[in-house]
Amino acid sequence: MTLKLQAAEMDIVAAYGYVRVVRELFQSYRDNVESKHLAWLKSAIDLAVQCGLEVSPEILAATAPAGSAAATSAPAPTSLVDPDAAAAGDSGVISSGASASAELGGPNPAAPGSTRLPRQCASVYRDNIPANSTSIHLLRNMLIPLLDHLLTELGSRFGELQQAAVSGFAILPCAFLVPNSPTFKPMTERRAAVSKFVRLAEHGALSVSKVVGELEGWEVDWRLWYEAATKASVAEEPPRIPRTLSEVLQTRAVDMGMYPNITLLLRRLATLPVTSCQCERSISTLRLIKTHVRSSMGQDRLSDLCMLRWHYSFKFDLEQLLDDFASMNSARKSALILSKS
Predict the structure, then answer these.
(1) CB-hemisphere CA count at 13 Å for 306?
(2) pLDDT tens for residues 274-306?
(3) Segment holding 197, helix H or strand E
(4) Are 134 and 127 in contact (CB under 8 A)?
(5) Do 12 and 169 meet the contact criterion of CB atoms below 8 Å apart?
(6) Nearest CA-CA partner of 170 in 203, 210, 212
(7) Cβ neighbour number for residue 157 with a 10 Å cutoff
(8) Residue 339 contacts residue 322 (beta carbons within 8 Å)
(9) How far, in Å, CA of 89 to CA of 92, rounded?
(10) Distance CA 177, CA 124 (A)
(11) Burial class (CB in 10 A: 0-12, 13-18, 19+), 114
(12) CA quadruple 118, 123, 129, 133: dihedral sign
């Protein structure tokens, strides 16, 4: 999904579809976190064994089937709580490095007569919830916080406000012309989706009543065009339906002047960015253009060079560009005429 969202051209509806799938996947992991934890822990153990690393018996027993030799011969799980510190009023939670050292046969900080290892600066702000075993420690302090963080970030970046903005794309012809297509939506769902976006972007001449009033004629007009294009098509394939905002705004299939509010709605939809990748690419381009040897570059020149770099794939006629540039000044125009003659 990350590579797809970083593409230069990306359909915003498809992008939110990918995000919805990932959110549902992470939510299923969170709902079944204990079983997923054991499965992933077993995979990590198998990888450690393949790399020749030593695995503590407690970890092996946590993932071994009940009644197996590893499960019955494993020692009792080492507590992650220091009883002396707990009696003194401290939380008594031993850092993960100290507990791992004790499990691998090293000095146990919680054992009588031993000195507890001091907390290192790297683990001061790390979650260290008490647990009776290393497996539960990893579950409570690593896996569950990670899944909660991912779900929270996806919910904040692709929340209800963003979903309401994307709902306006139900006005595109591909959402109502072909009933069996993946982008098709029923009439009631289309009305509700368009109304949700109009309420979000309602300003000035744009209102829900005006857009809904034009929506029925908009759909009928497109259906008549689709039926006529299907009959006139020589090949067996159906006519190509506009699927992007630019194609709909530039279409000649229907008279856009008959639907001024829908045209305004489509133009506002066209301003919605799919992701922030293009903005990040612009920042990278700016860093490449304005280096320390170009620190005195003016704002106009910097903007022009950035525009040339961002739209490098744009094709233009160099001769026409020179003529337009020369026509802006009489002296340049005279010089250009003399050079051509």
Answers:
(1) 19
(2) 666 667 777 788 888 888 888 888 889 888 888
(3) helix 187-200
(4) no
(5) yes
(6) 212
(7) 11
(8) no
(9) 8
(10) 59
(11) exposed
(12) negative
Both tokens of 43, joined, read 């995979």
pLDDT in tens, 173-188: 888 887 776 667 787 8
Question: What is the biggest distance separating any 2 CA atoms in the chain, rounded to whole angstroms?
Answer: 101
Backbone angles phi, psi at 203, to 5 degrees: -165, 135
Which amino acid appears at position 198 of this protein? Answer: V
Q: Which two tokens stand for residue 334?
A: 């005279």
- Closest alpha carbon to 98 in 88, 84, 110, 86: 110
Residues 6+ apart with CB under 8 A from 326: 332, 333, 335, 336
Task: Outline where 11-113 has alpha helix (H).
Answer: 12-31, 33-50, 57-63, 69-73, 83-87, 96-103
Among the listed residues 304, 23, 44, the one whose alpha carbon sits nearest the alpha carbon of residue 152? 23
Q: Please name which of 108, 112, 44, 117 lies closest in space to residue 78, comparing C-alpha atoms.
A: 108
Crossing angle between the packed helical segments 260-270 and 187-200, to the nearest 10 degrees = 70
Adjacent-strand bridge partners of 81: 93
Task: Read off the tokens for 105.
Answer: 């046969």
* H-helix segments, 201-298: 208-232, 245-249, 260-270, 277-289
Q: What is the pTM of this model?
A: 0.54
